[in-house]
Design a protein that fits this description.
Order of helices and strands: EHEEHHEHEHEEHHHEHEEH
CATH class: Alpha Beta
CATH topology: Rossmann fold
Number of strands: 10
Structural class: alpha/beta
Distance between the termini: 29 Å
Helix content: 25-40%
Length: 304
């Protein structure tokens, strides 16, 4: 399966290198009290503190992307901007130069992060789905409060938690790319273990127990069967929307799941499958991308 390995952040990522904390504090003074000096004498923040992490990401959105209002409950996932915008950049590379892209974000979440970044960087149009009405309401408030986002996002509520595309994609929709950061834990216990690993990676300390400090509602983090089953279901459903979408894609946290996805994509007739590796800080993730259109059909799509 074709793979493209990316050792660092995407070249277009505005968040490369050390954070410019002085500039970030200038747009968000509340961040200042969470800045500390590490053992190397470099100013940083405590990445195990969810308040500090949220303020950092809020500051990044303001400084680099002009987002003035970004407010959502602390119980919802707070997305790391560098990794999220990398996903957008690599999908933009895949799509090539195009002034009229429509992207479907599966599970937009209360933070509305992918539409924010896709509109800010490439002026994409978004369809944004979620299974939680409160998350959609919060995301709508973010969009309506930032003039650059107005009229760029079409929110659609997914009434059936067991469906991904069905009930969201309309018969006449033409979507250039679907994106998704799937729930990757199969249970609360798995989520707690993942949180412990994250703390250990950030601090070097091994903890016996940790609370789920990395905010995230159950529906955002946990799915029966975990990431493997969610993406498997997505692949199966995508067959029914082969003519509505040029590309389907999903983040993949666990590399061991890839072979299962490749087998399923072959079984269900995907004609083009790619894997893109991304690296952010000390985390490696992948994007699996597939299309049911061959090369000629893809070129015809782009001409429409």
């Amino acid at each position: 399966m074709p793979e493209s390995k990316k050792p660092t952040l995407h070249p277009k990522n505005k968040n490369k290198g050390q954070y410019d904390l002085k500039a970030l504090v200038k747009v968000n003074p509340d961040l200042a009290k969470y800045i500390k000096t590490n053992k190397l004498g470099i100013e940083t923040i405590d990445f195990t503190n969810p308040i500090a992490v949220k303020l950092l990401n809020k500051s990044l959105l303001n400084h680099y992307y002009g987002i003035q209002f970004w407010k959502f409950p602390d119980t919802n996932l707070c997305p790391p901007i560098p990794g999220r915008v990398d996903y957008i950049h690599y999908m933009a590379d895949l799509l090539g130069e195009n002034d009229n892209i429509t992207c479907l974000d599966i599970g937009v979440g209360a933070s509305c992060i992918y539409p924010i970044l896709g509109v800010s960087e490439y002026n994409w149009n978004f369809i944004a789905s979620d299974i939680d009405r409160k998350s959609i309401a919060t995301a709508k408030k973010i969009v309506s409060s930032n003039s650059s986002l107005k009229d760029k996002v079409d929110f659609r509520f997914q009434e059936n938690k067991n469906q991904i595309f069905k009930g969201i994609i309309n018969e006449d929709d033409k979507i250039d790319i679907t994106i998704c950061n799937p729930p990757f834990h199969a249970s609360k216990k798995d989520a707690e273990k993942g949180s412990m690993r994250k703390v250990r990676n950030l601090t070097g300390k091994k903890l016996k127990k940790v609370q789920l400090n990395f905010s995230g509602m159950v529906d955002e983090m946990i799915y029966e069967g975990g990431e493997k089953q969610f993406i498997q279901n997505m692949i199966i459903e995508s067959v029914n929307y082969a003519e509505n979408c040029l590309w389907f894609s999903s983040l993949v946290s666990n590399e061991r799941n890839l072979n299962r996805f490749y087998s399923s994509l072959e079984k269900y007739g995907a004609k083009d499958v790619k894997t893109i590796h991304m690296t952010t800080a000390n985390k490696i993730s992948r994007i699996v991308v597939w299309s049911f259109l061959d090369e000629k059909e893809q070129e015809e799509w782009k001409k429409k």
